[in-house]
Amino acid sequence: MNKLNAEQEQILLKQVIYNGRKDLFIQEYTLLIKMTIIKTLLKFPILVDKYLKNNETEMLLHHVIEKFFNKDCDVLKRYNRHKMRLSAWVKMVTSREIIDFAKKEKIRLFVSLDAFNPDSVNNDTIIDLDIIHRKIDFEKAMEKLSKRDAEVIKYYLMGYSAQEIVDLMSLSSVDNVYKIIERSKKKLNFFLSDEINPVTGGKNENKLLK
């Protein structure tokens, strides 16, 4: 998966945009997109049953792939090879798209809760509301961090590697990212270690959250 070097990625991108070779993009990045969808959805426990256990990820996969091709590949044309590798960018766009979708879906669920009869409340509803409350608590805890540290944590939880965070934020080194995560973990206490898990990460990154 995604074994292309930077030069090969540029060749593929031009083939897709200018020669209509969408099949090349689909062949190369479908697995990456699908894995990113699954890992991103896991951050929204309230949606797991519907979209993971019911195998509806294919619908989301189709939605994300279409986003790259819509309006004459407008999204792909906005890719900047000087900021990150194409594979990392595809993962970033996918993660953001699924997070946006999940947030809208949660709002839809909340609206439906507003209309229910109190007598209809069941255990599943209570669990969902508990998840909402813990999410709100986490967001409040994030306010304890500096703007830079909070941004690092948000990228990390979205699935970016330490090196990708360095590139995105122009930080000094990968070690600096690890230090920020470790320092933030202490400030956020159990939120990073128990409630919220990183989407992806290398061995060193995973150790930080154990």
Report on this structure.
This protein has 210 residues and is an all-alpha fold. It folds into 2 domains: 1-115, no CATH class; 121-210, no CATH class. It has helices at residues 6-19, 22-41, 45-53, 57-77, 86-114, 123-142, 147-158, 162-169, 174-188, 190-195, 203-208. The chain is globular.
Number of domains: 2
Q: Structural class per helix/strand content?
A: mainly alpha
Shape annotation: globular
Largest sheet: none
Q: Work out the strand percent.
A: under 5%
User: What is the radius of gyration?
Assistant: 19 Å
Helix content: over 70%
Number of helices: 11
Order of helices and strands: HHHHHHHHHHH
Low-confidence stretches: 110-127, 190-210
Query: What is the strand tally?
Result: 0
End-to-end distance, in Å?
28 Å
User: What oligomeric state do the depicted chains represent?
Assistant: single chain
List the helices and strands and how they pair.
Elements (H helix, E strand, L loop, with lengths): L5 H14 L2 H20 L3 H9 L3 H21 L8 H29 L8 H20 L4 H12 L3 H8 L4 H15 L1 H6 L7 H6 L2
Helix pairs in contact: 1-2, 2-4, 2-5, 7-9, 8-9
How would you sum up this structure in a few lines?
With 210 residues, this protein is mainly alpha-helical.
Question: Which short descriptors sum up this protein?
Answer:
single chain, disordered C terminus, mainly alpha, 210 residues, globular
